[in-house]
Write a structure and sequence with these properties.
six-stranded antiparallel sheet, disordered C terminus, Rossmann fold, Arc Repressor Mutant, subunit A, 712 residues, alpha+beta, DNA polymerase, domain 1, single chain
Amino acid sequence: MPPARPCANPLFLQWLEELRDSAREKGLKTADVYQKGCRSLAACPIAYDRPRQLVQLQGIGPKTVEILEKKLKAHCEANDLPMPVSPPKRAPARSRAHATPALGDDDDDEEDETPPPPKKKKTAAKPKAYIPQRGSGPYGILIGLLLSISNPQDTIQVFLTKGELIRAAQPYSDSSYDHSERGNFATAWNGMKTLTSKGYVIVQGSPSRYCLTEDGYDVAATLRNLHPDFANHPKIPPLARNDEPAGDEPRASMEPRAAAGSPSKFLFWYIDSKGQRVKEVSSARMRLDPEEFVALRRIEFRASQRNHVIVSQLRMVDADESLSASGLSTLFAYILEDGAPPRCSCFSDEVESAAPSPVRPSTRPSLALPVPGPSRPRAPRLSSQLPLLNDTRPPPPAANQFKTSDAITFRHGSYEIVLVLDTREVESRSNRDKIAESLEAKGVRVETRALRMGDMCWVARRLDGDGGEEDECVLDYVIERKRLDDLCSSIRDGRYNEQCFRLSQSGVGNVFYVVEDWQLAGAMESHGKQIMTAKSQIQVVNGFFLKETHKLLDTIEFLAMMTRVIIKSHRDLKVIPSRFISRTSYSALQRRLRTDHSPTVYLTSFDAYQALNDKSAARTLREVLGRMLLCVRGMSPERVAAILDRWETPRQLYDAMVEREKKGVVVDGRKKRGPELFFADEVQGEGRRKIGDAQSKELWKCLWGNDADLDD
């Protein structure tokens, strides 16, 4: 066996072994790293002058080099030895050699060091596009939405309800969109969250409708072209786009069409409560339609476009023209908030020439206003804008365009009627199934579901249905059950008024309010007047049917009797397709149908019923802001109303607070008014609407999140 070769760096190896032994005594994991360095240093045949040169060896990093440099400097000072000079640096074997610290260097060493070559500037990598896996939930959704577009060169703005989309997407998904697999709570529909977060699909309206964006269309077209079922079909090309514009300007949704016969873009501005032009729909002045009670937004457009197809869909268009400072004639009108794009198309104040030039494709995209309708969701507005609908293309289905011939018919004998109980409707915590079990014992078919409104309702289900959204419809009956003690508590906390209001706005024709006696003597003694007033209000003001029962068994008997009567009385059923339903216009639609087509009752699917009666379905930004402000200590409804008269949305309030913050402290005579007094200065009110300095400070601190002492 040949003799062991002596180490070329015995001093460095000795120090490194000391570090290893010390780490082993302390039980540190770095002992293994030091051991690896000792082996590589002992096997190295090259002698080094400085520890910084050891960084290229395995197991010796910058931290170890730093410790060895300190030991070398202490060794040289203790023995009166000069500090070794490092040779010029060569290209290191590993990239981390560039980051080796030079601790304990002399000035001479710095002169000998050659600067490292400049690093190449790395270009930011573009994020990869999300491509769903074949057979997954998102994959089927994209294919289903793509196949619903009949003419992409006209528009890709095709909205589908959840039921329509599931039927179109299910053939291309290996998992079910309705039912989860065993051991998993998620369905294939959960992939919709991924698609919306990636910007491939937008969700609008209530009930929700789904539509592809431009990016989603391109990905879906690629997936469709690669699918084996479409191998013999013509390939779908991606959308033709203009070059990417500079700045924040949105890109065009499609290649401009030929000038011949192409309609001009409808250009407009949003107008805020001060009469100023703004770009965001959230900043525009809002009011309610006096006939349908839907939200409208004020806009301004050129008078030369008074005959545009869009204008026929606007509300309260001014008859007289207005002149701007440059002499341009404009008109003011209101657009339905549900159909308004988030940003306007912004025309210029230049006066148009008398002879209009032919329309030419522009290299810069202009925003297009979609044709609004009472149930039309807002146009998709992520990174793109959808094309303008031309004059020859009919507007999409809307609530005011529903015809009786569009209704789905459930023939008598082709469906069964099921009583649906709310999951929270129980006798007691210990016996949650007594109501359902008692009804089943009486021959009533019962199911338990989470109802958005009411405690019981009746559902007609097709016997030959495939489980789709429109295979179930909710009959024109709903029951709200209250035990007497629950009625008293709901009156005190405000739930009673809220529930009555939601029941009256639901569009259901037959609402039954069941009041069940519970400790009647004690309740009448303490809350007798409230109970009698509520019972009278239920019948006279709200127009509901009041049913009083003495105990739970009486209520169960009433439900069984109602079920038998409903089954005997129903024949053919008419169901409104979900694509014609919108929360903002559903009540007006039902009033029109009951007036023009009585006694036929037009029903909705169960999913549409749930979406229509969601608590937040018709909640506006103004209402959300009001609820937020009411949570602040000292803010009364009158003070909140005064603020909402000044700023209607959180965005408007935030922008105003930002402007006030920039001004800082303002001197008003001898008084200094800081930003925290913003509400006291801006909100004009008298009596209970007035906001004082102390309340203004509290509100500013709560909204602005300023922890500084506001009393300075």
